[in-house]
Design a protein that fits this description.
alpha/beta; 5-stranded parallel beta sheet
């Protein structure tokens, strides 16, 4: 299953029974990620660099190495997922997962296939983080700034009261 609706993704992040998994490397995640997502890299920074370097010379050999590394790492990720489910006290059959990598390709699909075979409710974010970012940029470029109201002031100046009035008036 593939999902690519930005509004659905925003609602998804607000649901405690939903988990977004970013399978990109630690440094990619640190640079930027979908808010609320957790980082379970299928390849760490060094592994990703090694596979990428080999890929330039021999894509087949790089894919073999990537598959071996990812297979080993998925085992550890599955344990982290079990720990997360237990920590959040979520029924494993009820939790929903969305997975993404940079472009929605091999890294995210690798974990997706295994989780789907286990029976988790899981989907891919189509196009990965790159497509999500593009969607955010498009949304912001179409944003209607005339509906934007900036409220600022010192503590105790009445900002909260103004917000409460605006909320009552459905602004």
């Amino acid at each position: 299953m593939v999902n690519n609706n930005l509004d659905d993704l925003v609602l998804f992040t607000e649901n405690p029974g939903c988990v977004i998994i970013d399978v990109r490397s630690e440094s990619e995640f640190e640079l930027d990620h979908i808010p609320g997502s957790i980082n379970f890299p299928v390849l760490n920074d060094d592994e990703r660099k090694e596979v990428g370097t080999i890929y330039k010379k021999n894509p087949f050999t790089a894919k073999q190495l990537g598959a071996r590394l990812i297979s080993s790492n998925i085992s550890k990720i599955l344990q982290k997922i079990e720990d997360l489910i237990e920590e959040k006290s979520i029924n494993p059959s009820k939790v929903e997962f969305k997975i993404y990598c940079w472009r929605g390709g091999m890294r995210s699909r690798s974990l997706f296939i295994v989780m789907e075979m286990i029976g988790y409710k899981v989907s891919l974010i189509k196009g990965g983080y790159k497509e999500y970012r593009k969607g955010i940029i498009n949304y912001l470029s179409e944003f209607q700034s005339e509906n934007l109201l900036v409220i600022h002031g010192l503590s105790g100046s009445g900002k909260t009261e103004i917000l409460e009035i605006l909320e009552k008036e459905h602004f």
